[in-house]
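Model: Ready when you are.
Researcher: Fold this.
Model:
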Amino acid sequence: MLLDKRGVFFLRKISIKNLKGNEILAQDIMSEYDTLLMSKGIVLKKEYMERLEQLGITHLYVEDSYAEGIEEITEIKIKTQCQKEVQDTLDKFLSCGSSELESIKNVAKEIILDLLEKPEIMFNVSGVRQKAESAYSHSINVAALSVFLALQMKISKENIREIAVGALLHDIGYTCVKTDVKEKKYIEFTETERKEMKMHVVHGYTVMKDEKWLSNIAKDIIFRHHERMDGTGYPMHIKGDKQKIGEKIVAVCDAFDRKIYGIYADQMKVHEAMEYIVGNSGKLFDSQVVEVFNKSVAAYPNGTTVVTNQGEEAVVYRQNKGMPTRPVLRMLRDANGKDYEDWVEMDLVKELSLFIQDTLE
């Protein structure tokens, strides 16, 4: 394992199917009950693959060669800090009712403070999640990205806090849905299942509408985050001119996270999910929100292994602000498959003839 003089490791995302053995796990793997299953620093073996797949893990981060001040994966940092509180709060809601949800405001505040520390960075999505943690991780991801976009859009801090709370609770209505379709895709639902699943927004609003501590901004997000600009959304088929900015932001972030993690849909790579959002700008999603989203989210997150148009393999090292498809790469192998022996960086903002063709995931 190569280290720089400060002994700093570089995170690299890898599919468990591509594990060759002897890689070093860079982040702890936890169970749904917050039990440590594999600790970072462990040397991975090929035979671990089956067990990881049983846990619903498709990718993980391993330690790779040296790096200088690598940026943290935004999603991982925030999830690590907030997931326990969100999970405990939602569990209390199931047993004690909506009065237990007010503490979610503290989580919203933590997320905002985290993102205010580095408002200039690109939002990095890890793409690594266990099935067991999908419900609360989805809510945290949507809230974090919603706050990030709202900050870029210069929305008032007070409204950003309410947007964060609404995003954290946007899917609370699923707790009232009787249909169990966790392993199915939306196109596989029966008509009855589709109607039942769409009712989660109504259930959520019904549960929360009389809570005085919850703002109207947050309540509207719970009720209307599946509305679309052209009126094809639900439950009220409200068009864009009737939607508020918080609902529009959460609509984009919710759809994006669902595509990345394959929630009721085919899983997409991050850049493919971004193309879906951008391709539906003005039709399904608000064009102003999409414009900010497209400049603020890394299409190729740090640690992603990519293939260039020249057939070389590289790993994304850091982001260039406002240039989501033109990060800085650390080159791994040349077009002939030969490993680079020295550290070679390519800044795609400067190397105009070089671009990313696809990711190896």
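Researcher: Now this one.
Model:
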Amino acid sequence: MSTFNVPTREEVTTGNQAIFDDLNKALGFVPNLYATYAHSETALENYLNLSNAKTSLSAKEKEVVNLAVSEANGCIYCLSAHTAIGKMNGFTDEQILEFRAGHSSFDTKLNSLANLAKNITKNRGKADQEVVNNFFAAGYSKGNLIDTIVLVGDKTISNYIYGTTQIPVDFPAVQSLETTEV
């Protein structure tokens, strides 16, 4: 059980209150993880700017990376959130489980992306050269590689905030990979 509180709108700075209002308009609520960023006067805005920045990766590709990284880091909050977002992007439950495991049996390009995201995360930024070569062989560019690494860092930040704070998960819970066959 978390002893770290999720701040309410009234408990955050005026700047963060405006962000809470924007999130409420866009999402219908303020996710607990985003609210937790608001303990800092600047972290929520900085994180949302990074997370929403332009990238060469599509929305679907971003979800592949988010799922693989969150699984590698064991972040149940982000796995729950990105499973919901992955479904909104048209992925099936089975595909999402594959991405979480770091592969894809139905798309070779996404397979190389999921494998790279998992490999970078597990190896703390030192990707295996064969995995990088497979990424390029699947049709990705050096720019895509850099954007993938930035996204791994982006997602790792949230994974670490949840891992340290253990705030309540406010998305539908996901099953662990150990209890499913992928």
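Researcher: Key takeaway?
Model: The chain has two domains: 9-51, 59-161.
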